[in-house]
Amino acid sequence: MHQRTTTPRSRVARSRIPLAVSASALALALVGCGTAVASDKPQARTNTGPIVLENCGRDLTVPSTPKAVVGLHPSQTELLLRLGVADRMVGQAQTTSLALPDDVAKLATDIPVIGEASPPSREDLLAVSPDFVYSPTTYEFTAEKGFASIDQLASAGATAYVATGGCFDRRMTGTVDDLFVDLQNLGRIFQAEDEAARLTDRAKQDLAEVQRTIDGERKPKAAQVFVDGTSLSAIGAGVEHDIMRLAGAENLYDPKDPAFADFFAAQITPEALAAKRPEALVFAVTDDAHERATREYLRKTFPDMPAVKNDRLISIPFSDTFPGTLGNIDAVQRIAAGLYPEKSGSQ
Q1: Which one, of 122, 181, 124, lies nearest residue 147 by Cα?
Q2: What predicted TM-score, i.e. pTM, was given to this entire model?
Q3: Which residues of the chain have pLDDT under 50?
Q4: Which UniProt keywords apply (predicted)?
Q5: Domains along the sequence of the chain with CATH
């Protein structure tokens, strides 16, 4: 099974986004709506002409290979580091939301932190004079929040790139494959096609291995939920739904349900979830304490549910559901191992 090298639980995010439970989370998400490193310090090639591509419904022109790059979330910073861009990164942000995997963390040691728990302010971002800014969602470019907008960055000579799955019009229909669009685009932008192809091939191999392992098996009935205190939400659309599909779940919530017509999550009652009698429950967690609290809530609230009785409570780091991250692949593998424990030893 594919695993990036990390310390235990280091990939669990202490996220700024409680997933679609509070009003602030709803507003935020609507706006937003192991691979090895090739060497200790891989180098991206330089001196290319303009690259023209489409990103979030807009034509994007990158005039030359960027030389002053910012990753606005560790998931994006990780991809940049794996593509060999460490020597040209002038900023990283939201660093307390997720620990970088150990095998690339050392490459980020000297990259200035311009935002810890949140995206950088407009002033802090522009102060490092970036020419390329890579973000997981459009939220990080919300001027009303005090962040630099895409237009403001363009006026300062910087190209803003949003992870494909984090584009506003993709949040409800995003798929794990969106990551491969980003890798192809970034490979072109940084003249790192070989590195991008290697990451893509490895991820596709990992997904194919999951499919080979579970092929022909009966799909367990499963639901993905998010628990915030005693508030319970079901997840039924977006990349989260696609992750469940690829992991081999018979998802009890899906985009065809009217409850998910406008948003990928919907608050539900415990009675409604209990009536579906899921054989497995998948839930995203922001840290160890959140995982413990969620497990306690599920066991106390649903003692007769098959998922609880058979201890099929599968946690995934909240950060692995972020658009455009290698964590999406990790989430597929982790959920599949939980859904098919008798098969997981062969992955």
Answers
A1: 122
A2: 0.84
A3: 1-3, 5-45, 346-347
A4: Signal
A5: 36-204 (3.40.50.1980), 217-344 (3.40.50.1980)
